[in-house]
Every structure is written in structure tokens, then in C-alpha cells.
Design goal:
Radius of gyration: 22 Å
Distance between the termini: 29 Å
Organism: Chelydra serpentina
Membrane topology: Peripheral membrane protein
Subcellular location: Lysosome membrane
Strand order of the largest sheet: 1-12-11-17-16-15-14-13
Order of helices and strands: EEEEHEEEEEEEHHEHEHEHHEHEHEEEEH
Helix content: 10-25%
Strand content: 15-25%
CATH topology: TIM Barrel
Pathway: Steroid metabolism; cholesterol metabolism
Mean pLDDT: 85
Number of helices: 10
Family: Belongs to the glycosyl hydrolase 30 family.
């Protein structure tokens, strides 16, 4: 079924970097509203393929070698309550009365810098300040790449159940960790329509026994009615995808919910059904994202859909998942797609670790999993992607609940029996990009 991506409204842009500080922005909790975008300016010269493959510098800065005069720790937010579960790094334990926090990002004084550092040894977004000597920065403001829409995760049934299983105080600390300026300031939230594997039961919006003719169900009416029902609670959406992983429906004996589209079917569904339904509804300003599947399908899938002028007129962006990235060189998929269709943004709409059958599902303190997130984000940003969305915001100690037992890992793991949650290395890797 389609998944929704929902940026939270924010007033000005900001983020945290391991090499500096962005400007502060005020944080609201109405994170289902449309968000602003950050512009990423290009380097003076395009990045080399080798640098892109390594996840090279994404900013537009050049500098002359110069040591810092001094570096000193900056007192601020509450420190991590570190716990070691015997893996290669630590988690930060939170409960109803305590959770580590960050100070709001502020612009350093002239001639100084602020550094945020996380490490395998245990640092978690630790801020320090220093002063440069004889540093020359050259910014080429004329050459620009994509605007960054943001970063976030998915509020699945399972994520919501895990959050709600905590006491009110612990719930607040978890949500503040993700969405406030004393946390990592997510501004994208993805919401499934109807059930998915991260539900505790199978359900649709036509749970009418024997309705094989779908007399009580219409996919386009379901999509617009979903938006109507949320609007009654003052929750509006920024974008909707045409359907999650449409290739999954082509796989025989697929283990959980799926909807099958070929690129031709998705093209026609958008052109004849979903596109007009959204355009003629009270949600006609909502954006439509095609594909929402593995990047190995690009550029072919985009060529089939976007070369149809009617379908293309309803589409704003292209959603990609990361699970088969090892089969799809980024320069032969995302970069080519961008150059073929530069008017349509690329957005990473799903990623998770522990999803392959040979992997442990949850690793409490797995540093390598955070490193995989950072590498994916850097290489995507260096190839025209405008944002990066994680999968479940919170899972339990098993990596669920999941009715099909398709357990995975998450940046936040909840132990509801102790009213605790653990912030994984993945959480802090995500924080460096906000």
C-alpha cells in the first residue's frame, strides 16, 4: 500500500555537522506540516567518482591547511547514560526521568568553530569548540545542487505501539529525542496506509468477508479518504507515494502485504486514477512520489512513467529504497535518472539494518550499522538525493512486533517491561545530518 512522507514545518534551516555548525531553527511539534528546504551548494569542481564512492565532502568549501589554535569541550545538554551489551559500541539508556539531550545549535563566534563528534568508543554528538588560524574558505555560491528536504523515520503500527507501551514521561523523552531541538530534529515522518508487516494483524480498508469484487473498496477513494480522516484531526500531509515496493507483488509467495505494479501499470494508475483523484480532491496540493522501490529499477522505471506526459504532470519526485543498493551502482542509477529528469527530486524513502536473513535482527550498540547509515546518506546526497528516511522509529527488543516475523533493527529499541528505551549508534549517526 502507499506510504506517506510528512515533513514538519520549520522556520529556518539548520543541522549538525562533524565539522561545523549550522544556524539554529525553532522546532515545532506539528511535524505533519510541509517543511522548508535547505540548499546544498556544489563544490567548485564536481566530485570525482572516487570521492563520491567514498562518500566524500558534500559541502562547497575549500580551505588552506591550518591547525586549530585550541579545542575545548562545551558544557551543555545532559550526557549519555551509557550501557554496554557486549557489542562493539554503546547505547544510551533513557527512561521517564532521564534522557541525554543536546543544546540548541548556535552560530559560533567569528573565527571559531563548533564540532560535534560521535565515536565507536562512546562519544555521542559531543560538542567542542576551537579557533582557526589563517583559514581561508572560498564559497562558490553560483553553482548549486539539490535542495535538501530533510531526514526522518516511519511511524508504523509497531513503532506507535512501542512508543505507547512506555509511561508518559518516557514517551515524551523519546519523542523529544527525535523531534525537538534538544534532540536530532527529524522533519520527515512516513506513515503506512492500512497494515504492513510491522503490524500485529492483517487488515485492509475493505475488511468485508467475501468481497472479491471489491464492491466496498476503491484504491483511489481509499487514498483520498485516508487524507480526509487525518485532516479531521488537523494533520495534513506533504506527499503520498503511488505504492510501496511495487515489484514485491510480482514475487511468488511474497511473505507479507504487497501490491504489484509493473512500470507500465504504475504509469497508467497515476495517469488515469490516482493523479486525477488527488487533483480533484481537497488535497490537490499534495505531492506525488513514484516508484518507492529499489534504485536498481532506475532509470528504466522513471523512463517508462515520466515519458508519459499525463502521468508526469501529476508526479513531483521519485522514491528509492536501499535494500538492493549492492546490485545498483549509484552513478548508473540515481545520477543518470537525475540528468534524464532533473525536474523530479530523488528521495530515499526506506532503509533498515538487520533485514537480511543471515544477519542478527537487533544488535544493541552495533556501531557498524550506524556507519552504514552515514555512508548511504553521504553517497546519496552526493548523487542528487534530497533526503533520507529510516524505517521504524522504534521497535522492541526482538525487532518487532511484526506479524510475519520479519524483524529488523531500529535507531531506538524499547524495553517496555522496564519502561526504558535505548538510543542506538544509528540514532546518533542520523543526528549528524540534522
Amino acid at each position: 500500500m502507499p506510504r506517506l512522507v510528512t515533513p514538519r514545518e520549520r522556520t529556518t534551516s539548520s543541522g549538525r555537522s562533524t565539522t561545523g555548525a549550522w544556524t539554529q531553527f525553532s522546532c515545532g511539534c506539528n511535524y505533519a506540516e510541509q517543511g522548508s528546504e535547505r540548499e546544498v551548494k556544489s563544490p567548485r569542481q564536481p566530485l570525482s567518482p572516487e570521492l563520491r564512492a567514498r562518500g566524500g565532502e558534500a559541502s562547497n568549501r575549500t580551505w588552506s591547511p591550518a591547525p586549530a589554535l585550541s579545542v575545548s569541550p562545551s558544557l551543555g545538554g545532559r550526557p549519555c547514560n551509557a550501557k554496554n551489551f557486549g557489542h562493539d559500541s554503546l547505547v544510551c539508556e533513557c527512561n521517564a526521568s532521564y534522557c541525554d539531550t543536546l543544546d540548541p545549535v548556535v552560530v559560533p563566534a567569528l573565527g571559531t568553530y563548533a564540532k560535534y563528534e560521535s565515536s565507536k568508543a562512546g562519544k555521542r554528538l559531543e560538542r567542542s569548540e576551537g579557533r582557526f588560524q589563517n583559514l581561508l574558505l572560498k564559497l562558490d555560491t553560483a553553482q548549486r545542487y539539490q535542495k535538501v528536504k530533510g531526514f526522518g523515520g516511519a511511524l508504523t503500527d509497531s513503532a506507535a505501539m512501542n512508543i505507547m507501551a512506555l509511561s508518559p514521561g518516557a514517551q515524551t523523552n523519546l519523542l523529544m529525542s527525535y523531534f525537538s531541538e534538544e534532540g536530532i530534529e527529524y522533519n520527515l515522518v512516513r506513515i503506512p496506509m492500512a497494515s504492513c508487516d510491522f503490524s500485529v494483524r492483517l487488515y485492509t480498508y475493505d475488511d468485508s468477508e467475501g468481497d472479491f469484487e471489491l464492491r466496498n473498496f476503491s484504491l483511489t477513494e481509499e487514498d483520498t479518504k485516508f487524507l480526509d480522516e487525518y485532516a479531521k484531526h488537523n494533520l495534513t500531509f506533504w506527499a503520498v507515494t503511488a505504492g510501496n515496493e511495487p515489484t514485491a507483488g510480482e514475487i511468488v509467495f511474497y511473505p507479507f502485504q504487497c501490491l504489484g505494479f509493473s512500470p507500465e501499470h504504475q504509469r497508467d494508475f497515476i495517469a488515469q486514477d490516482l493523479g486525477p483523484a488527488l487533483a480533484n480532491s481537497s488535497h490537490k496540493g499534495i505531492q506525488l512520489i513514484m516508484l518507492d522501490d529499489q534504485r536498481v529499477m532506475l532509470p528504466y522505471w522513471a523512463e517508462v512513467v515520466l515519458n508519459d506526459p499525463v502521468a508526469a504532470s501529476f508526479i513531483n519526485g521519485i522514491g528509492i529504497h536501499w535494500y538492493l543498493d549492492f546490485l545498483a551502482p549509484i552513478d548508473l542509477t540515481l545520477s543518470i535518472t537525475h540528468h534524464l529528469f532533473p525536474s523530479y527530486y530523488l528521495l530515499s524513502t526506506e532503509a533498515s539494518t538487520g533485514s537480511y536473513f543471515w544477519e542478527p535482527r537487533v544488535i544493541l550498540g552495533g556501531w557498524d550499522r550506524g556507519s552504514k547509515y552515514s555512508h548511504s546518506i553521504l553517497t546519496n546526497l552526493n548523487n542528487y538525493v534530497t533526503g533520507w528516511t529510516d524505517w521504524n522509529l522504534a521497535l522492541d527488543m526482538e525487532g518487532g512486533p511484526n506479524w510475519s516475523k520479519n524483524y529488523v533493527d531500529s535507531p531506538v529499541i524499547v524495553d517496555s517491561s522496564k519502561d526504558l528505551f535505548y538510543k542506538q549508534p544509528m540514532f546518533y549517526h542520523m543526528g549528524h545530518f540534522r
